């Protein structure tokens, strides 16, 4: 009994000693000095982070050192809030890539090189719900979910007849709560969230819908695969489905090494990451074009000169659209779709310190981009890129934990939108119009 009492007394002192050691090691790093127990919460607002040490960097040399490492690949605790949905998939895994990830890399690399894509199966005039010449750019979020639903699982939903599907609504609800928990002092803790938050029932309901949907599609696909092995049509109606990421994973199984849970984690991760970056990339590029009519005109002329009256955008078309590529890169620099990424250091430094790679600060540094608040696609002319540090521009990530298919770019969506408008200029709605 006495040893237990001694242990209980010494434990908080040991914790305090180790915490002081970590804080002591950061004294020489410039920044606001934390106060005992409350850290820098008075500087930041109502989200105390006293127990979590973070060092923010924005120098390309340091960013290269971290992102190129095969050791510093552990994500920060913020990603833990996504584990109930995504599991330990490509986004959260502490391995460079797991077996399912390697399969996705191999298969997706081949798919990206396909010769043509039907632009109207991706996004078209009707999908934007253009009424009286106006549309809300945030509508792209719903339609991109439906697109990635078909790409990842081969499950097609009519975007116009099913604008509020249970699955899409569940994802939206889950992510809304995720953002609240990210900035909450107590809801980020699982037990407190479960016991006291009014949002927990909605969170749990959304999670059940998402997992039930994905699991159901996986089971259906396995049954179709079994039918083919028996010499029967894959589907009862005999209609051949498009090959989706789910099919790639099932076809690549060896001795059933991939369980339904393994596959679900990778499919859900692809849905989350792909939808988010694609929607943001298209939205910010359209915003930049509307705010810079001269640039918009040049992009449209390039699209018309390369495509003519063709309705199908081929990979050759996209590869020839050099100015569009420069515009998209500048939009990703200017708005920085992923403003920061974090790594939890476990070697070469004090264990437990989180390193924040401030990509927005990197992209708006005058050391690498002159007049950084100006939108200028010419920054990405070959001769201008060659003079910059290769890690001065990091749109998503880089190194061994880079996006598994960085070529899943928003070129196609932007080209499709501008081509659909057939030369009609896209303009921003004024703040007064929004208010009225």
From TrEMBL:
<keyword id="KW-0479">Metal-binding</keyword>
<dbReference type="GO" id="GO:0016705">
    <property type="term" value="F:oxidoreductase activity, acting on paired donors, with incorporation or reduction of molecular oxygen"/>
</dbReference>
<keyword id="KW-0503">Monooxygenase</keyword>
<comment type="similarity">
    <text>Belongs to the cytochrome P450 family.</text>
</comment>
<dbReference type="InterPro" id="IPR002401">
    <property type="entry name" value="Cyt_P450_E_grp-I"/>
</dbReference>
<keyword id="KW-0349">Heme</keyword>
<dbReference type="Pfam" id="PF00067">
    <property type="entry name" value="p450"/>
</dbReference>
<dbReference type="GO" id="GO:0020037">
    <property type="term" value="F:heme binding"/>
</dbReference>
<keyword id="KW-0408">Iron</keyword>
<feature type="binding site" description="axial binding residue">
    <location>
        <position position="403"/>
    </location>
    <ligand>
        <name>heme</name>
    </ligand>
</feature>
<protein>
    <submittedName>
        <fullName>Cytochrome P450 monooxygenase CYP4H10</fullName>
    </submittedName>
</protein>
<dbReference type="InterPro" id="IPR001128">
    <property type="entry name" value="Cyt_P450"/>
</dbReference>
<dbReference type="GO" id="GO:0004497">
    <property type="term" value="F:monooxygenase activity"/>
</dbReference>
<dbReference type="InterPro" id="IPR050196">
    <property type="entry name" value="Cytochrome_P450_Monoox"/>
</dbReference>
<dbReference type="InterPro" id="IPR036396">
    <property type="entry name" value="Cyt_P450_sf"/>
</dbReference>
<dbReference type="GO" id="GO:0005506">
    <property type="term" value="F:iron ion binding"/>
</dbReference>
<keyword id="KW-0560">Oxidoreductase</keyword>
């Amino acid at each position: 009994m006495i040893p237990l009492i001694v242990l209980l007394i010494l434990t908080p002192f040991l914790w305090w000693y180790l915490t002081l050691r970590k804080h002591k090691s950061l004294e020489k790093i410039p920044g606001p000095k934390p106060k005992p127990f409350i850290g820098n919460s008075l500087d930041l607002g109502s989200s105390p982070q006293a127990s979590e040490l973070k060092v923010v960097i924005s120098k390309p040399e340091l960013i290269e050192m971290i992102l190129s490492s095969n050791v510093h690949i552990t994500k920060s605790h913020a990603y833990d809030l996504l584990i109930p949905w995504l599991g330990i998939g490509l986004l959260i895994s502490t391995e460079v890539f797991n077996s399912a990830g390697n399969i996705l890399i191999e298969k997706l690399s081949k798919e990206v090189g396909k010769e043509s894509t039907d632009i109207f199966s991706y996004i078209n005039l009707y999908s934007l719900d253009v009424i009286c010449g106006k549309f809300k750019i945030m509508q792209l979020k719903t339609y991109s979910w439906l697109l990635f639903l078909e790409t990842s699982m081969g499950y097609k939903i009519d975007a116009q007849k099913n604008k509020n599907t249970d699955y899409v609504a569940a994802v939206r609800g889950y992510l809304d709560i995720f953002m609240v928990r990210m900035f909450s002092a107590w809801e980020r803790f699982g037990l407190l969230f479960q016991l006291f938050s009014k949002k927990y029932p909605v969170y749990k309901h959304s999670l059940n819908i998402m997992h039930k949907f994905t699991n159901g599609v996986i089971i259906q696909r396995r049954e179709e695969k079994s039918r083919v092995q028996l010499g029967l049509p894959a589907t009862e109606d005999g209609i051949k489905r498009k090959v989706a990421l789910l099919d790639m994973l099932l076809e690549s199984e060896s001795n059933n090494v991939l369980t339904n849970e393994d596959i679900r984690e990778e499919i859900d991760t692809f849905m989350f990451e792909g939808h988010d970056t694609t929607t943001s990339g298209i939205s910010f590029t359209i915003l930049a074009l509307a705010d810079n009519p001269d640039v918009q005109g040049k992009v449209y002329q390039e699209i018309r000169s390369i495509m003519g009256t063709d309705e199908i955008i081929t990979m050759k078309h996209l590869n020839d659209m050099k100015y569009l590529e420069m515009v998209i890169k500048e939009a990703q620099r200017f708005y920085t779709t992923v403003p920061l990424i974090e790594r939890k250091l476990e070697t070469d430094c004090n264990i437990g310190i989180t390193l924040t790679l401030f990509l927005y600060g990197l992209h708006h540094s005058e050391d690498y981009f002159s007049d950084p608040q100006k939108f200028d696609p010419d920054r990405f002319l070959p001769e201008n890129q060659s003079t910059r540090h290769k890690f001065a521009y990091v749109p998503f990530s880089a190194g061994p934990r880079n996006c598994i298919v960085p070529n899943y770019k928003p070129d196609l969506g932007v080209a499709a939108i501008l081509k659909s408008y057939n030369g009609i200029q896209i303009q921003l709605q004024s703040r007064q119009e929004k208010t009225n």
